[in-house]
């Protein structure tokens, strides 16, 4: 005999509802005071390096929107300043590599030679263009072996436009902006109110409600990591905002752009103990953690272990799908590379040019919290039922 529907437990009706997608009550997205799906915090962060720039030209609105579609936890950007003090999203201090500036005859006389990070560089510099002029340029794909179909389709965006992309997402998406080349910017760009580049950077974040220590209530609503290669900038912004910061570390041959310190100095235990007062993590070039020779990996250094001993996260950069970026150990398989770095090296976040690839790997290998057992799921169902019955 077919049982009466009224005798079926409510939690089974709920399961049937989930299975057949027939709403028994208003879905969360339709309720008042809508809450966005929170950012995941139980597995290493998927950080979209300059957006999904393996597919679409870097630092463009389309690249960031694509990264969000593909599952990024954070969208990462580099912040520079224009001649008239506008903060923009762009990686290089020169426009040569990723824009069509060379085709603009009206800018032919703008080429300059400036000192940048201890070396002379010649090109068209961001700091010699107003925001209005920068907006006339089109962005191209950096690497010739990547998809070229989007070249010339997108423009440079501002820091505020970048923030809007994250805030307009249909789920909680964090931002991960870098204070790019602050020594150079502060030398060439002056603001009428006497503020520094770092001050304007923080003012923009505060304007949009970004503040709060790591994992605080406000941080979870608007997740943010501030990053910089310049330790003096990190110390300065620490006085202005309590949001978590990450100290970036370049190749072992590169000295810090502001304090002129070597890689070995800034990765010593004494220095980690010092910088820990200002940051929650390190962002090292991945080959400084696990060196390579002849395109084969060598034994890992102890940098991750020592950073963790100082209670510092480690977010290495940059992970790329193409064969020329994959060491032979990974057999041209980016999943194998992710597995090595997450499960053997034990990192806490990854800067990737291919957000979708990392997201698919993590959905396959760690789709839920480790403590999310069947019992905990039943508890959640019970809570949903209680909330429904209380309506």
Shape: globular
Mean of all residue-level pLDDT scores = 90
What is the CA-CA span between the terminal residues?
Answer: 33 Å
The largest pleated sheet is described as: 6 strands, mixed
Poorly predicted regions: 1-33
Radius of gyration: 23 Å
Q: Helix and strand string, N-terminal first?
A: HEHEEEEHEHEHHHEHEHHEHEEHEHEHH
The SS-based structural class is: alpha/beta
Percent in helix: 25-40%
Percent strand: 5-15%
Number of strands: 14
Q: How large is the count of helical segments? A: 15
Give the structure's gist in a few sentences.
This protein has helices at residues 10-20, 61-69, 131-134, 159-167, 182-188, 197-207, 217-221, 231-238, 263-266, 269-275, 286-289, 303-309, 334-345, 355-365, 374-389; strands at 45-48, 74-81, 87-89, 112-116, 119-123, 157-158, 174-179, 226-228, 245-249, 281-284, 292-293, 296-297, 313-314, 349-352. It is α/β, with parallel strands linked by helices and 391 residues long.
Tell me what the structure shows:
This protein is α/β, with parallel strands linked by helices. It is built from 15 helices and 14 strands. It has helices at about 10-20, 60-70, 130-135, 160-165, 180-190, 195-205, 215-220, 230-240, 265, 270-275, 285-290, 305-310, 335-345, 355-365, 375-390, and strands at about 45-50, 75-80, 85-90, 110-115, 120-125, 155-160, 175-180, 225-230, 245-250, 280-285, 290-295, 295, 315, 350. The strands form four sheets. Strands 1, 2, 3, 6, 7 and 14 form a six-stranded mixed sheet that branches. It has a four-stranded parallel sheet with strand order 8-9-10-13. A hairpin with a 2-residue loop joins strand 11 and strand 12. Helix 2 packs parallel to helix 4 (about 160-165). The protein is globular and about 60 Å long. Residues about 1-35 have low confidence and may be disordered.
């Amino acid at each position: 005999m077919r049982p009466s529907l009224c005798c079926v437990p409510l939690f089974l009706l709920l399961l049937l509802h989930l299975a057949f997608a027939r709403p028994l009550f208003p879905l969360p997205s339709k309720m008042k005071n809508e809450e966005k799906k929170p950012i995941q915090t139980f597995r290493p962060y998927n950080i979209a390096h300059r957006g999904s720039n393996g597919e679409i030209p870097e630092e463009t609105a389309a690249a960031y929107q694509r990264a969000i579609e593909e599952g990024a936890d954070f969208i990462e950007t580099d912040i520079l300043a224009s001649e008239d003090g506008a903060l923009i999203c762009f990686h290089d201090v020169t426009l040569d590599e990723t824009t069509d500036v060379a085709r603009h005859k009206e800018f032919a006389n703008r080429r300059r030679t400036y000192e940048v990070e201890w070396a002379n560089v010649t090109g068209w510099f961001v700091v010699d263009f107003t925001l209005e002029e920068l907006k006339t340029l089109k962005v191209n794909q950096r690497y010739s072996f990547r998809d070229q179909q989007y070249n010339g389709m997108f423009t440079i965006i501002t820091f505020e436009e970048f923030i809007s992309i994250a805030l307009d997402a249909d789920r909680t998406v964090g931002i991960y902006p870098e204070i790019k080349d602050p020594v150079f910017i502060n030398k060439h760009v002056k603001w009428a109110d006497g503020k520094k580049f770092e001050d304007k950077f923080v003012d923009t974040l505060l304007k949009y409600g970004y503040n709060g220590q790591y994992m605080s209530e406000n941080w979870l609503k608007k997740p943010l990591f501030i990053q910089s290669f310049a330790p003096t900038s990190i110390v300065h912004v620490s006085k202005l905002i309590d949001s978590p910061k990450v100290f970036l570390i370049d190749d072992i041959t590169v000295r810090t752009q502001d304090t002129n310190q070597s890689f070995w100095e800034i990765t010593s235990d004494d220095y980690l103990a010092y910088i820990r007062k200002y940051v929650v993590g390190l962002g090292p070039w991945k080959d400084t953690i696990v060196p390579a020779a002849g395109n084969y990996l060598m034994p890992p250094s102890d940098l991750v272990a020592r950073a963790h001993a100082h209670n510092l996260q480690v977010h290495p950069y940059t992970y790329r799908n193409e064969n020329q970026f994959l060491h032979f150990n990974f057999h041209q398989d980016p999943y194998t590379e992710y597995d090595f770095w997450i499960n053997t090296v034990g990192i806490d976040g990854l800067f990737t040019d291919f957000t979708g690839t990392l997201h698919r790997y993590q959905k396959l290998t760690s789709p839920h919290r480790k403590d999310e057992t069947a019992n905990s799921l039943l508890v959640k169902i019970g809570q949903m039922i209680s909330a429904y019955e209380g309506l």
